[in-house]
Amino acid sequence: MAATIKDIAKQLNISVSTVSYALNGGPRSVPDDIRESVLRVAKELNYRPNRVARSMVTGKSDTIGVVPPEVTDNVFLSPYLHLALNGIINEAGRQHQDVLLFTRCSEVDRDELASILVDGRVDGVIFIAPHFSEKSVELAASLHSPCATVSGVPLDGVLSFSVDNESGVASAMGHLYGLGHRKIAHIAGRLDMQDALVRLQAYQAFLRNHHISYREEWVGMGQFTIDGGRRAMAQLLTLPEPPTAVFCANDEMALGALFEAHSRQVRVPEDISIVGFDMTPGSENVYPGLTTVRQPIGELSAAAVRALKALIDGKEPQEPTVFQTELIIRQSTTCPKEHKS
Amino acid sequence: MAATIKDIAKQLNISVSTVSYALNGGPRSVPDDIRESVLRVAKELNYRPNRVARSMVTGKSDTIGVVPPEVTDNVFLSPYLHLALNGIINEAGRQHQDVLLFTRCSEVDRDELASILVDGRVDGVIFIAPHFSEKSVELAASLHSPCATVSGVPLDGVLSFSVDNESGVASAMGHLYGLGHRKIAHIAGRLDMQDALVRLQAYQAFLRNHHISYREEWVGMGQFTIDGGRRAMAQLLTLPEPPTAVFCANDEMALGALFEAHSRQVRVPEDISIVGFDMTPGSENVYPGLTTVRQPIGELSAAAVRALKALIDGKEPQEPTVFQTELIIRQSTTCPKEHKS
DNA sequence: GAAGGGTTGAGAAACGTTTCGGAGAACCAG
DNA sequence: CTGGTTCTCCGAAACGTTTCTCAACCCTTC
User: Fold this and answer.
1) Per CATH, is A165-294+327-340 categorized as 1.20.58.100?
2) Which of A276, B1, B35, B86 could form a disulfide with A292, with the two C-beta atoms 3.0–4.6 Å apart?
3) How many CA atoms lie less than 13 Å away from B304 in the CB half-sphere?
């Protein structure tokens, strides 16, 4: 039985509109004495404005929605999603927005996913690393509801924030190449995701540019997971001619590769060098520390929130933004054996 | 300009109530032919129900709120909060609930925090590890809105989920004691949080029960953070008589302690043993692997969601639930030096 | 003292749903 | 044919806000 604006009005024998104006410093002024008594009675009755009712009228909710790439158990354990979500939350707080997490996208069909985008509970939506097959981004764009993607395909009507994968991959591969590696394998992520595909292509482009022939058996599919990385590494290590270095499309697969190497008594980096991508917290404290490509996931996500908020506020949509990466050299990479002695 | 129920009614020349019944399989039946045409037109018009309006009438939102212990930048980077949030999201999805993250608790006063609890956007709230000073839990309880705490103080009218800290601490301390350690220090967490306080007390109780005298200088304050753990460890290591083992109230502080030991050329576990608490993912892959006390944070949080949902659905409130811990012995603990040779 | 402007506050509409009350039609049993 | 039950479906109320319209009043100013 929460108190409403009507209760206040009744108690003071004034109209609800006056109460509303007083409470909000509303579009109209009210005399000081009335305002004070309204505030007093509001406090007495323990009045709390009902945000749902307000949303109903204003059409605003001060809440932004976040759609994960998929909804399976423990998606949010992914370090990438973790960093992205953290960045979103940080910035959302600053922008005075709450965050609504959609947890039910998988069990409903795409149509319904679209419905949650426009059901009035959020002012805008951020899609984190959507799959190519995910139609809801286009749907959201076609509904003209403010939306943004983090690491998605740039699309008309959608704010887009991504990282310069090409130069990131080039720096990682260049590092290995510079150390003398020529037998460089790649463990790719889920190819139905933008980052994975682009990184694979950039890997291939690097080989081409450096006149190294592309060998299909040196590309493993790691699905962006630790286990996937392990399996892919296992395959690579049992090849008749194994590579001397592995570039992984994210840190989790790199960790998996590292663990697989450990369990097969293959030394890292002496026997094989490993490079990751993302610079997740977990890449730092393993043994040996993982050489990786830092991408500013948090900043990228925060920028998405900022731009989304601006769009919601009626500003002009921001152009697609590409963030730069940075190579972080740690202990998991060194010269190939043949080169050394 | 989203289509509404009215548009459907107008197009078919029937009343909105009939449309609503048809759409919802509502409390009343409608003839099959009408239902079908309603569904058809709804599809044609791309109709999406407005959840806000529905909430308004039904008073339900199918959304549960999550309140972090505090809102500062990067709170959600905390592995504890990460695991808790992940557990909540997993279970919320299963219970067909979305998750609203409150990002704005710090800048508003407690009163306002309470207001977001009952502003109609959520059906219930989960407080994760609230501080003692946090009045909003009591406030929420007094407002009779469904709420739960994870690792909070048990309180009337609040569902409570926590872990058996006493036995967890006893198993960790017992492990060190069994290895021969008698000089056991403790790095405590934020003492304005339930878990930290109880673990400190359990540490003291263990010493008492084993007739080891309590030494104040062997208790460091680590604030539950890596940096705090580092600083506390630095102090312990510069003591005239340093301890041979350190029991930390969480894994992050244990990692901090580990790193500090590394940087001072103090070997772990040969020179000093370290035990953590939580079994966060980060504790596994460091060198040496961290002995720790596993607490099922995810399950605990999931249970909170389940119980909260049941309460929202009008079931009887579940009794406070205490989860058991499990000692995970890895490589960061061994016998003290004096004992060995 | 009348015209005009500004201030004040009451009343009501609107947002999009759900669901109740009840009117009319159809059907059945007596 | 009558009385009761069941089926249809319309109209309207309700949820709690925000904000518009409009009337009443007060104060200038000519």
Assistant:
1) no
2) A276
3) 36
Residues recorded for chain A = 341
> Distance (Å, rounded) from C-alpha B113 to C-alpha B104?
8
Q: In 10 A of CB A306, how many CB atoms?
A: 18
Give residue limits of the domains in chain A.
5-49, 63-163+297-324, 165-294+327-340
Neighbours of B58 (CB within 10 A): 10
pLDDT at A341 exceeding the cut of 60: no
Give yes or no for residue A108 having a pLDDT over 60. no
Cα distance between residue B62 and residue B45, in whole Å:
25
- What single letter denotes the amino acid at residue A328? I
Quick one: closest CA in B to A50, which residue?
Answer: B119
Q: What is the distance in angstroms measured between the alpha-carbon CA of A13 and the sugar C1' of C3? A: 34
What CATH code would you report for B165-295+327-340?
3.40.50.2300
Options 3.40.50.1970, 2.60.40.420, 3.40.50.1100, 3.40.50.2300; CATH for A63-163+297-324 is 3.40.50.2300
Please list the helix, strand and coil fractions of chain B in percent, rounded to the nearest 5, in that order: 45, 15, 40
User: Nearest residue of B to residue A65 by CA position?
Assistant: B100
Q: Does residue A97 register a pLDDT over 60? A: yes
Query: What CATH fold (topology level) applies to the domain B63-163+297-323?
Result: Rossmann fold (3.40.50)
**Are A113 and B107 a contacting pair, CB within 8 Å?**
no
Same fold, A63-163+297-324 and A165-294+327-340: yes
Contact yes or no for B42/B18 (Cβ under 8 A): no
Instruction: Check CB contact of B110 with chain A, cutoff 8 Å.
Output: no
For the stretch A245-304, pLDDT in tens is 999 999 999 999 999 999 999 999 999 999 999 999 999 989 899 999 999 999 999 999
pLDDT along chain B (341 residues), means of 10: 88 92 86 90 90 93 91 89 96 93 68 72 94 82 88 92 97 98 97 96 98 96 96 97 97 97 96 97 91 97 97 93 97 82 42
pLDDT band at A136 (very low <50, low <70, confident <90, very high): confident
Bridge pairing between strands B147-150 and B124-128: parallel
Q: Among B66, B39, B60, which residue's Cα sits nearest to residue A121?
A: B60
DSSP string of B100-135, one letter each residue: EE---TTTS-HHHHHHHHSSSS-SEEEEES-BTT-T
**Residue A30 CA, nucleotide C5 C1', distance (Å):** 19
Residue A139's pLDDT band, with cuts at 50, 70 and 90, is: confident
pLDDT in tens, A166-211: 999 999 999 999 999 999 999 999 999 999 999 999 999 999 999 9
| Matching residue, tokens 């010269």 | A335
A135 touches chain B (CB under 8 A): no
Rounded to the nearest angstrom, the minimum Cα separation between A67 and chain B is 11
Of B131, B122, B179, B125, nearest in space to B151 by CA = B131
- Write out which nucleotides of chain D lie closer than 7 A to a protein Cβ: 7-21
The pLDDT score that the predictor gives to residue A285 is 86
Measured CA to CA, the distance from residue A164 to residue A209 in angstroms comes to 18
> What element of type H or E holds A199?
helix A194-209
